[in-house]
Amino acid sequence: MLLPIFAANFKKINNNIMDYKNLEVKNSSGIIILTINREKALNALNDQTMIELHDFFTNVAPRRKKAKGIVITGAGEKSFVAGADIKEFVGMDEKAAMKLAKRGQDIFFMIERFPKPIIAAVNGFALGGGCELAMACHMRIASEKARFGQPEVNLGIIPGYGGTQRLIQHVGKGKAIELMMTGDMIGAAEAKGLGLVNHVVPHGESVKKAKEIIKKIGTKAPIAIGKVVECANAYFNGVIDGYSVEVEEFGTCANSEDFKEGASAFAERRAAKFQGK
Ligand code: CAA
After folding, report:
1. Is the pLDDT assigned to residue 201 strictly greater than 50?
2. Cα angle, residue 170 at apex, residues 167 and 151 outer, rounded to 5°
3. Which residue among 159, 191, 224, 248 is least packed, with the fewest CB closer than 10 Å?
4. Is this structure's pTM higher than 0.90?
5. 161 and 256, same domain (yes or no)
6. Cα-Cα-Cα-Cα dihedral of 193, 107, 75, 87, to 10°?
7. Nearest CA to ligand 1 atom 3
8. Taking a C-beta distance cutoff of 8 angstroms, is the pair 245, 226 a contact?
9. 113 lies in a domain?
10. CB of residue 104 inside a 6 A radius of ligand 1
11. Does the beta carbon of 258 lie inside 6 Å of ligand 1?
């Protein structure tokens, strides 16, 4: 059963937390289901939605200490997110465009760096900023009907929410450049073959699969999970050395109560009970 956890309780958590118009936030067995909820516009990321996403990842998600992870999906049967809201692009000048891109990148960095699993349940179109949102998540589960693409060149622009960088990370430079230059859409099976998605599931089951994965991760040591995210991101940092980060964080994990518990549980042939300490 899905229980609304935030809508009615925003003010109880923090007076500054806003009411969301375009995001639906639910708790399903300790997993946050975050739905981009603009079905009529195929869940395009307009300004209001980006403000709400920023608020969610700044003020809400980090405070949900008991949440096991987050599933991000789109409302309706047809679309995950069909990109940035093109209708709001009319009249946008260079300065405004740069500000828009920077804000989007900052929000997607918060997703990419979040210390608990965030999985995109891609239930349809994941185009432009929608593909970029999915790529910022730690994993992607695609419905058989999912379609991925970076069609920005059709509009005279390029991906602006990190897509030029993350698509290369996921599928390699040659294929990424092909997809960004042609604007072609690819289906779920091809996306899986390219390594862009982790699993393809029947339509309507992407959230279920994402929840199953988060539930499994929820049995592991929370500090170690956060360090996996940190080290994986370090690989792509360009400035810091990922191997050094790994040494450091391996040490941090070894210094945790959870490591003692994990090692003892193994020796005692029982399931570990991790506390996140
Ligand atoms: N922005 C605003 N509105 C959008 C939208 C978008 N990105 N995508 C779809 N919509 C709206 C349509 O305008 C339409 O609304 P109206 O009925 O009010 O006109 C409604 O959603 C349904 O869309 P369609 O009628 O077009 O549905 P379709 O099934 O015929 O086509 C589609 C679906 C192929 C996804 C098509 O809507 C489409 O090509 N959308 C645009 C995709 C795109 O170019 N995304 C990239 C945006 S730029 C970007 O994201 C930049 C960045 O990196 C930050």
Report:
1. yes
2. 30
3. 248
4. yes
5. no
6. -100
7. 41
8. no
9. yes
10. yes
11. no
